[in-house]
Amino acid sequence: MAAAGAAGLAVALTACGGSDDASSSSSTDSGSPGGGGADGGGSGGGEEAAAGAALAATADIPEGGGKVFADRKVVVTQPTAGEFKAFSATCTHQGCAVKSVADGVINCPCHNSNFSITDGSVQSGPATKPLPSVQIDVSDGSITLV
């Protein structure tokens, strides 16, 4: 009985992204530097965003900024005009949802980790791993999850 309780606790800790060392997620790599394969911290990247689902019009993503799609657990950025990137919206520190994009960084309000809008890399901790890339398709003024 104690073993079952310990196993349940381990599952609960993993699901909450208990540390930077949680198992890696199944996010796909969009080919950007510092791309996928990094730990998503919370639920796996493959579970976070539905493939083939339109997210937004390109005009909805500000140049030099981005937009968090909390319901899809993805953040889309436009580091430079016409260049769009997407990342998991789950902070790699402890699995909190990132909430905003400002001043060239994606912000997590839980412990103030910040990530680059260009490649998801950590700009300030306590997070130590980048946000995993999420593959998107940009065509005809629309951004779609792949």
TrEMBL record:
Q: Which Pfam families match?
A: Rieske
Keyword Disulfide bond: yes or no?
Answer: yes
Region Disordered, annotated ranges: 17-57
SUPFAM superfamilies according to UniProt: ISP domain
The record's Gene3D superfamilies line, in alphabetical order, gives: Rieske [2Fe-2S] iron-sulphur domain
Domain Rieske, by residue range, is 53-145
- Which CDD domains does this one have? Rieske
Keywords from UniProt, A to Z, are: 2Fe-2S, Disulfide bond, Iron, Iron-sulfur, Metal-binding
Please give the cofactor(s) recorded in the UniProt entry for this protein: [2Fe-2S] cluster
InterPro entries, per the entry: Rieske_2Fe-2S, Rieske_2Fe-2S_sf, Rieske_Fe-S_prot, Rieske_Fe-S_prot_C
**What does the UniProt function comment say about this protein?**
Iron-sulfur subunit of the cytochrome bc1 complex, an essential component of the respiratory electron transport chain required for ATP synthesis. The bc1 complex catalyzes the oxidation of menaquinol and the reduction of cytochrome c in the respiratory chain. The bc1 complex operates through a Q-cycle mechanism that couples electron transfer to generation of the proton gradient that drives ATP synthesis.
PANTHER family, sorted: CYTOCHROME B-C1 COMPLEX SUBUNIT RIESKE, MITOCHONDRIAL (PTHR10134)
What is the protein name for this chain?
Cytochrome bc1 complex Rieske iron-sulfur subunit
